[in-house]
C-alpha cells in the first residue's frame, strides 16, 4: 500500500491531546485534581450565611475539559456522598478537605444549561465506592504473599539444609548400589 496517496494532513483536533469538549452524559470514573472551600453568592442562605461551598475539580481524561462541582457546605449529605465515592471518612469536627485531592470517584453527569445560557457539566450523583477501610488496616504493614512467607521461613530456618526426604538418601543408595 502506498501511504503517500493519502496526503500529509495534520492530525484531527480530537487527537491533539487538547481538551475538546464537555464530558458526555453518563457514569464516569474521575480523579479529584483540586479541592477548596470558596464563598459563592448563590450558596448563601440562613444555614450558610457566608455561602461557603466545597469545590472540586474532576478530571475524566485529557480528552475532555475538567468538571468543576461546587457543593454548598450546609448540604452535608452531598458532601458525605462525595466522601463515600472517594473512599474516605466523611467530615467530622475539624476536617481537612485536601484529603480528597488525588482520590478517584465515580460520578454520574449530565450536560446542563445555566441561567446565563452557558453549557456546563453537572454532577447528578456521586456513586458510592466500597466502604473506607478502618484506619488500623489502612496504616498496617502490607500483608505477605505465600511465596514471601515461604522465603522468610526458609531464611529463618537456616537456608538450604532442609532438603525434604534427605533421610531416604542412604536407603536409595543401598537399593541402587545393590542392584548394580
Rg, alpha carbons: 30 Å
Ends distance: 71 Å
Helix content: 10-25%
When the domains are counted, the total is: 2
Task: Please report which band the strand proportion falls in: under 5%, 5-15%, 15-25%, 25-35%, 35-45% or over 45%.
Answer: 25-35%
CATH level 1 name of the largest domain: Mainly Beta
Query: What does the average pLDDT come to?
Result: 81
How many E-type strands? 5
- Characterize the biggest β-sheet: 5 strands, antiparallel
Structural class of the helix and strand makeup?
alpha+beta
- As laid out across the biggest beta sheet, the strand order is 3-2-1-4-5
Which CATH architecture of the largest domain is right? Beta Barrel
- Show unreliable segments: none
Helix and strand run? EEEHEEHHH
Number of helices: 4
What is the name of the CATH topology of the largest domain? OB fold (Dihydrolipoamide Acetyltransferase, E2P)
Shape: elongated
What key phrases describe this protein's structure?
180 residues; five-stranded antiparallel β-sheet; alpha+beta; 2 domains; OB fold (Dihydrolipoamide Acetyltransferase, E2P)
What do these coordinates show?
- With 180 residues, this protein is an alpha+beta fold.
- It has two domains: 114 residues, OB fold (Dihydrolipoamide Acetyltransferase, E2P) (Beta Barrel); 42 residues, no CATH class.
- Helix content is 20%, strand content 26%.
- It is built from four helices and five strands; from the N terminus they run E-E-E-H-E-E-H-H-H.
- The chain has a five-stranded antiparallel sheet.
- The mean pLDDT is 81.
Amino acid at each position: 500500500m502506498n501511504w503517500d496517496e493519502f496526503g500529509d494532513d495534520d492530525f484531527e483536533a480530537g487527537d491533539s491531546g487538547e481538551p475538546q469538549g464537555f464530558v458526555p452524559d453518563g457514569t464516569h470514573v474521575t480523579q479529584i485534581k483540586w479541592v477548596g472551600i470558596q464563598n459563592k453568592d448563590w450558596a448563601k442562605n440562613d444555614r450558610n450565611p457566608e455561602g461557603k461551598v466545597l469545590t472540586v475539580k474532576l478530571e475524566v481524561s485529557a480528552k475532555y475539559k475538567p468538571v468543576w462541582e461546587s457543593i454548598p457546605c450546609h448540604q452535608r449529605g452531598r458532601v458525605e456522598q462525595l466522601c463515600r465515592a472517594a473512599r474516605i471518612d466523611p467530615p467530622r469536627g475539624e476536617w481537612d478537605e485536601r484529603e480528597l485531592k488525588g482520590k478517584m470517584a465515580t460520578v454520574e453527569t449530565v450536560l446542563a444549561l445555566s441561567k446565563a445560557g452557558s453549557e456546563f457539566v453537572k454532577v447528578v450523583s456521586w456513586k458510592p465506592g466500597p466502604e473506607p477501610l478502618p484506619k488500623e488496616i489502612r496504616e498496617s504493614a502490607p500483608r505477605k504473599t505465600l511465596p514471601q512467607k515461604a522465603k522468610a521461613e526458609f531464611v529463618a530456618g537456616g537456608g538450604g539444609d532442609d532438603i525434604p526426604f534427605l533421610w531416604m538418601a542412604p536407603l536409595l543408595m543401598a537399593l541402587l548400589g545393590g542392584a548394580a
